[in-house]
Amino acid sequence: MRRAPRLHWISILLGLLVLMSVVSFHAYTAIRPESVQHAREHRELPERTLALAFHGGPDPKWTPRLLDVLREVDVKATFFVIGTQVTRNPEVTRRIADEGHQIAIDGFRAEGDHGNPLNLAFAQAALADVLGAHTPLVGAPAEVDSGDRDHQDIGTLVRMSLRHGGGVVRLHDDGSIGADITRELAKAPGYRFVTVTEDRLVEATATERFTGAVTTWSQRNGGIVLMLLGTAIAIAALLGILRTLMQLGLAHTDRRLRRESEQSPPPWITPPVSVIIPAYNEAVNIAATVRSIAANNHCADVEVIVVDDGSTDGTGDRAEELGLPGVTVIRQANQGKPAALNTGIRKAKHDVLVLLDGDTIFEPDTIGELVQPFADAQIGAVSGNAKVGNRQGLLGRWQHLEYCAGSNLDRQILHALRCIPTVPGAIGAFRKAALTDVGGVSEHTLAEDTDLTMAVTRAGWRVAYRQQAKAWTEAPSTIRGLFQQRYRWSYGTFQAMWKHRGALLENGPMGRFGLIYLFAFHLLLPLLAPVMDLYVMYGFLVADAPLAAIVWTVFLLIQTASAGYALRLDGESLKPLWAYPLQQIVYRQLMYAVVIQSLITALHGTQLRWMSVRRTGLLTDAPGGTVHVT
Amino acid sequence: MQVFVDANGGRRVIARLVSLTVASGLMVFAAVVGGTLLEVW
């Protein structure tokens, strides 16, 4: 097997980091805090020399008027600019520089906030983008306060400005008064005007200009990025609501069908059945599986065929050693699960076939229940209810919840829509005629169960779900095992969807609902989920934290309620529900990592092979308790 | 032959190139922007 692609994870993580930075930066620049006061160094100017220092700008309305006056009176001033204002008013900033005034930095968001090195860096970046230069003059020296923030009377302001007979005068260019004082100060007899220092702009390097372009872009367009993220979340939320509505619809249909079924129960059928168990290195579980089948209470012949697909751990021997009547073991060289299934199908003597994995435990009435939908001649396949047999630990509980709230609930909804896309490998029954129609099990995908079910549906057969037919299966007990299993399932499902994409143009329910359902809930929703996490994180860290917490909690409550409903439908205890909110932290991320990995693997065209899950043989939650066969 | 599997390896090479370009581009981008800002000019 070629190594699965991995490089994209760096791109995805860095991409998310960049997105997060863009929207956070945008939010950061949108706020203008209070000015920061500093203890400033004194700057000695010759007597009767004034340096006009303008703060708070550049301003789109008042700075140009001030520049007109400065030109009129032929005075050069110093502008202590604010970074966010520079980005907002690039033309005005350029005019300040072009007309020979000195540009210095006062801060990034507020007057005087340059004390924070990051603010200073952002402010320099803004200048680098707009002027292609940065300034060595950061922060004003000790100034003579003109009083322009507190007084309106020009005479008072001029008196205050000149009270020391010279020096750096603190003025503002973000209001009308700056231009008026300047005109009056210029008339003051015997004064000459200089800039605060002789420092001039220093040309920015290419990387500084690039960084400036990036921060400027983020300040200007972060809102658009946030809107796009919001749209993605809206789609995800809409899908979530749609699924909840489907569940409500299902509850209604379910109640109606149950009432009808109670009033006139359909006749109980008992067709003879061939059970096919493809097994590769299932020595730990196979005896328990075969015994559970042999212990069935179906009132007709049940033939059991174990196909040992070249196991190296004595799987076939274990099955033979049991010496159970009606059990045949066929050995073949390792050819893969589809080939093993096809061998079993060829050898089967009955018309109804039950297919299950070598790690599955059936209840005594499972076969009898599973074949009931075949009373309807249009039914070609029946899906049973796969349940997690090892629910110990958080991972086991999470998978149990997911089997009920995810897979089985999906199956109920799709049953109502008549387009179940997967009869699971763990428990399914097929009419031999349906399998013959589609040419047996194909080797085209890794999800041979989904591929087969879609093919059967497209061939005109209906697929049913029998909730009462329960099979207990061993779920992976490690995160790595779970990732590998789901990777194969997800990749295989995409393969099957692509293989059967033609169904979209056909009249059957598979194309109309099945493929669209899979696309929406198995591809689109998991792909949008990381954005949702990012948005929640943004909400908590940057924006309105209480609102983000409320939205997140409401969603979690809806999902938990939906999971509880699924457990009730399945006749399960509500106790494991406490583990559901914890799923949001590790499990959900793992599931969308699986979908992303599958999608990238598909794009790369990498050949994936069967990845076997390490078996423990411990199905403690299956009927009969621990079934540990060694 | 399985669905999606690239028979002659051409798609895999292109995909790897694209992946490599995107990943290294993003790394350079993050290093330049982050590095320049952290240098504090």
UniProtKB/TrEMBL annotation, chain A:
Say which species the protein is native to.
Lentzea atacamensis
User: Any stretches that span the bilayer, and where are they?
Assistant: 224-246, 510-529, 535-558
Q: Outline the extent of the NodB homology domain.
A: 48-104
InterPro entries attached to this UniProt entry: Glyco_hydro/deAcase_b/a-brl, NODB_dom, Nucleotide-diphossugar_trans
Q: Does the keyword Transmembrane helix apply?
A: yes
CDD domains from the entry? CESA_like
Q: What is this protein called?
A: Cellulose synthase/poly-beta-1,6-N-acetylglucosamine synthase-like glycosyltransferase
Family of this protein = Belongs to the glycosyltransferase 2 family.
Keywords on this record? Glycosyltransferase, Membrane, Transferase, Transmembrane, Transmembrane helix
Automatic annotation (TrEMBL), chain B:
State whether keyword Transmembrane applies: yes
Transmembrane annotation, as ranges: 17-38
Q: Does the keyword Membrane apply?
A: yes
Superkingdom of this protein's organism: Bacteria
Q: Which UniProt keywords apply?
A: Membrane, Transmembrane, Transmembrane helix
Q: What is this protein called?
A: Uncharacterized protein
* Organism (species): Lentzea atacamensis
